Amino acid sequence: MNTPFWCLVVVIFLPFTLAFVGGYFRGKAFGQADNKNPRAQAAQLEGPGARAYAAQENAWEAAIVFTATVLMTHAAGLPPEVAAPWTIAFVVFRLLHPIFYILDIDLARSGSFLGGLVCLITLIVKAGSL
Description:
- The protein has five helices and no strands.
- The chain is mainly α.
- The longest helix is centred in the middle third of the chain and has 29 residues, at 48-76.
- The model has no long low-confidence stretch (mean pLDDT 96).
């Protein structure tokens, strides 16, 4: 498996990791995580816990777009070694994003979001120029 596909694996599993982080905050805030109605309990969170769940939702959205982008570049015939630096950079930006989100560092969070977006656009442009 080539680097862009390994990056895709990381991006797809990031929301699951953030679900565990959110569960930690639910347990911390409420004594235990309510597994019967987790979304209602998560909606009651404030501060870092609420931001952890928001980061998870954002990670799902990013995973969808990144998946489409990686598959598009692959189908277009973009060599993996050309795509790799951009997919790795995307992963770095997406790993930083929830950290900044949970810590409430809004400008850095927005910067990591924009950095990831630049990576996606660059990959699409490179694939489109073949």
